[in-house]
């Protein structure tokens, strides 16, 4: 027959087991932020505002993107149909103007995606898609008029392929 002391001991063991299980359960972490606070203030901190100001200083505009404003506008008109994305219910898309300007800035400076995020207010993950897509669009648009291969080089390329 069990005594009161045995019952107390069993109760204590039961409580200890329950507490142990509670401690070993996976701790559900508090969800991190979906987006950093300063990234939400894109209109305030974006390099697009700087570009709008640089239009009044042609030398600075040329220094920033390594081309004058007229060339930039022509290039933007050529690639816009290829790099424009649709807005969704969740968020606005990154405009063709932002895509092209950040790609040109990346090509002109060689800065890392992590560094560019501070001046453009675009995430490095987005750069991983934006910059290659924009470079491909630039290549498709400019290859016929500006990237010509001489006949001898062209024949050499064909010979190498086969």
Automatic annotation (TrEMBL):
<protein>
    <recommendedName>
        <fullName>Nuclease HARBI1</fullName>
    </recommendedName>
</protein>
């Amino acid at each position: 027959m069990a005594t009161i002391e045995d019952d107390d001991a069993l109760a204590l063991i039961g409580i200890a087991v329950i507490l142990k299980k509670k401690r070993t359960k996976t701790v559900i972490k508090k969800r991190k932020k979906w987006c950093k606070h300063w990234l939400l203030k894109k209109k305030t901190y974006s390099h697009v505002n700087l570009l709008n100001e640089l239009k009044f200083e042609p030398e600075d505009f040329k220094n920033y993107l390594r081309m004058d404003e007229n060339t930039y506008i022509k290039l933007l008109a050529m690639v816009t149909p290829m790099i424009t994305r649709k807005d969704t219910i969740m968020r606005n898309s990154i405009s063709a103007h932002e895509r092209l300007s950040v790609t040109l800035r990346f090509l002109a400076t060689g800065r890392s995606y992590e560094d560019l995020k501070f001046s453009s207010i675009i995430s490095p993950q987005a750069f991983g898609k934006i910059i290659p897509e924009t470079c491909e669009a630039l290549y498709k648009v400019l290859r016929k008029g500006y990237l010509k291969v001489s006949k001898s080089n062209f024949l050499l390329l064909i010979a190498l392929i086969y």
